[in-house]
Amino acid sequence: ILNVEQSPQSLHVQEGDSTNFTCSFPSSNFYALHWYRWETAKSPEALFVMTLNGDEKKKGRISATLNTKEGYSYLYIKGSQPEDSATYLCAPYTGTASKLTFGTGTRLQVTL
Amino acid sequence: NAGVTQTPKFQVLKTGQSMTLQCAQDMNHEYMSWYRQDPGMGLRLIHYSVGAGITDQGEVPNGYNVSRSTTEDFPLRLLSAAPSQTSVYFCASRRGTGSGGELFFGEGSRLTVL
What are phi and psi of A73, to 5 degrees? Predict the structure, then answer.
């Protein structure tokens, strides 16, 4: 079973704060890294799929970077808003089989 | 747009009963999978399929069966439910079987086994 670690487990910030969290994964047999956003009582939705070392992706105020050599990815949220409150999941895809292994997520709460 | 549809949304079973969770997708995705979500454990892969007629085990397959007779459908069967199978189950699909396709999730099915 692939060891995927996300930190912190939870985070509480105020509206307007910028924040970031980390996903660590084994760097061997790496093919891709997925980030998902999961709001309470909804289903996870994809944010980014990243494949190349040094890759940077951006969607609005959310961006992500990828380091495949050392096995980590950062997710950044600039100017957090209450609607950003969710659990953020990362899932590396390693080529041994057609499956994603999810981390336990970082739960973000943004208050006014 | 239907996407990935799961039924039922809620189910209560007694220990030893059997049931099937249904999953259907209308996006012509080759890959389909079932995850369970438990507090503190994140999403864990139960079974997956890379195409009609092909299934394989994930991390936690014991107590579950799957089949994939069509591209659209991927039912999950609990043959003899146990309290340890109380969980929220998510079906997910994606285009292709490689690494680049994002997963599309159903709305989840909450199962309680008494």
Answer: -140, 145
Q: Is residue B8 reached through a cis peptide bond, with omega within 30 degrees of 0 on the bond before it?
A: yes
Nearest CA to CA, how far is A57 from chain B (Å)? 14
3-state secondary structure of B4: strand
Q: How far is CA B104 from CA B29, B72, B90, in A?
A: 10, 13, 10
Q: Of the candidates B40, B41, B48, which has its C-beta nearest A98's C-beta?
A: B48
**Which residues lie below 8 Å from residue B69, measured CB to CB, with a gap of 6+?**
B52, B53
- In chain B, residues 9-68 whose CB comes closer than 8 Å to chain A: 31, 33, 35, 40-45, 48, 50, 56, 58-59
What's the mean per-residue pLDDT of chain A? 92
Range scoring the smallest mean pLDDT among A4-8, A60-64, B91-95, B98-102: B98-102
Question: In what order do the strands lie in the sheet containing A62-67?
Answer: A5-7, A19-24, A72-77, A62-67, A56-59
What is the amino acid identity at position B60?
Answer: V
Separation in Å, CA of A91 to nearest CA in chain B: 10
Question: Given CA atoms A15, A18, A23, A29 in this order, what sign does their dihedral have?
Answer: positive
**Has residue B1 got a pLDDT over 80?**
no
Q: Return the minimum-mean-pLDDT range out of A5-14, A36-45, A87-96.
A: A87-96
**Closest-approach residue (CA) in chain B for A2:** B59
